Amino acid sequence: MEIKMTNLTKIFTSKNRKEVHAVDHVDLVIPSGKLIGLLGPSGCGKSTTLYLIAGLLRQTEGQIFFGNEEMTDVPPEKRGIGLVFQNYALYPHMTVRENILFPLENLRVEKKEAKERTLEMAKLVGLEEMLDRKPKELSGGQQQRVAIARALVKRPRVLLLDEPLSNLDARLRLQTREEIKRIQRETGITTVFVTHDQEEAMSISDEIVVMKDGVIQQMGEPQDVYDHPANLFVAKFLGTPQINVFDGEIKNGTVLIEGMEVGKKDLPDQPITVGIRPEGFLVDTKGKSSFRFTVDLVETIGRDTTLLFDMLDDNAALLDRKTFKAIVDAGYRIKTGDLVHFTIRPDKLHLFDKSTGIVL
Ligand SMILES: Nc1ncnc2c1ncn2[C@@H]1O[C@H](COP(=O)(O)OP(=O)(O)OP(=O)(O)O)[C@@H](O)[C@H]1O
Ligand SMILES: [Mg+2]
Fold this sequence. Notes:
The protein is of the alpha+beta class.
């Protein structure tokens, strides 16, 4: 089921009459059968967007369509959605079986069919052995899978997940996200997965949507968005360690940081913001490149060495201390205090307009 939002806007008015534009003129098409990761910092409007799709909130402006069907006046229970929240509220006194089956009782589904569907869902989420247990006898990840089964048993047209993994520890989180991906693939249900964790969104989504202050910044396949960020915000939001950001300039078609050449760009002379991914630094062992720094800190983990540089060393005129990170092969055996020359991989060099932050 395709979900389409046109000019979707939600304005909250708080007691002091201040307006919050939680969702701001959003135009978005979520393709049928895909898993979309809705991603952005706290307060950017992810949950609000989800609740608008669910019909738990009513938009201030704009429209939502499921397929060709306009949803504005359709109440939540008639929209055919399955919802899973961060705080999965299972009924503690009911067994897993009863928890999954519960929505079907409300829908007055015939007993035999309800039983079959419950078993089918328990199998799908891998809990058929645990149908007679109570929630407190399950791990956090298993409980969350019960919540997913309960959301799916109604055979919704759309599955909406709001930070479903944030209560789980790191390992369970990883495991459960793979599980969600598998369940989504097997059912082919259009799914919107809300998270503020970029790695989580990147790893399971067919496409990610990056949001900031209620406004969509970019939508695309995770790797495409990572490789071609539309603006500085998106570039900084995706990737660990974060992209390094420098004040730079374009002069005669050459990209300069502190007067040192890092690349070429056929654009008029201008001050710019330069982003370099940590993995974009290539060690120039011949020492020919003018782009060079003295290493301030070395962290080696396995095959990778992370080099930390303090830009103050090379330009004492800078007021605030700025550090940056380069990830290089541990084989170089670089030590603190070494002067390292770099060339920059062109595909890891991102240039942004100094004032707007939009990619050049
Ligand atoms: N009922 C409400 N009344 C007033 N303002 C609200 C209400 N609900 C949300 N907001 C505001 O709308 C904005 C978006 O909130 P939302 O809950 O959608 O953010 P989010 O992206 O889900 O954040 P988080 O990652 O913290 O869950 C925030 O500024 C929030 O304070
Ligand atoms: Mg939220």
